[in-house]
User: Fold this.
Amino acid sequence: GAGVSQSPRYKVTKRGQDVALRCDPISGHVSLYWYRQALGQGPEFLTYFNYEAQQDKSGLPNDRFSAERPEGSISTLTIQRTEQRDSAMYRCASSLAGGGGSPLHFGNGTRLTVT
Amino acid sequence: QQPVQSPQAVILREGEDAVINCSSSKALYSVHWYRQKHGEAPVFLMILLKGGEQKGHEKISASFNEKKQQSSLYLTASQLSYSGTYFCGLGGETSGSRLTFGEGTQLTVNP
Assistant:
């Protein structure tokens, strides 16, 4: 079946603008994760959901970042008042179940550039 | 705390073996291994859960030493397709589904 789908693939925005990144997980996957990956680095955890409930948002850098998954499927990561340091690859992943025992299936990511 | 992977990079000839290590300063509950090729998403290889087991998948296997808080990934008789960056992701007992990834090990397999 289809994998994790993210849109847009690329986003260029000006400093101070808000952006919304979308993630469509694999159908039936309970858990959805947002990671940020700098070039040459491993993915850095931001937040995750089980169904529609946000279980852990400890990785969100500050209150400009928020995420939601209102119906337990598609999720949106929103960054308000973007800054240049927000530039990165934002990856979404989903897994059949939570708890660390299920493989993460990553999407192709959204490359965000803040000018 | 971020796990430490070693080596940072390794270059092999096709058919050679390699070991990639992943160490943590915290007690481990789960270890995930992923491979990422340039410009692509990380792809799942295997999971090991608390218990010190060893898992295998064709010529790629891994071990999980709970006492040493370390996992190792073994690649035997490497193929060109094994090239990429390998990441370990660690889950703690209280961190639930949150994985903390290492900085990666860049593996290059040459003909």
Observations:
- The longest strand of chain A covers residues 88-95.
- The interface with chain B takes residues 31, 33, 40-45, 48, 50, 55-56, 58-59, 91, 95, 98-109 of chain A (CB under 8 Å).
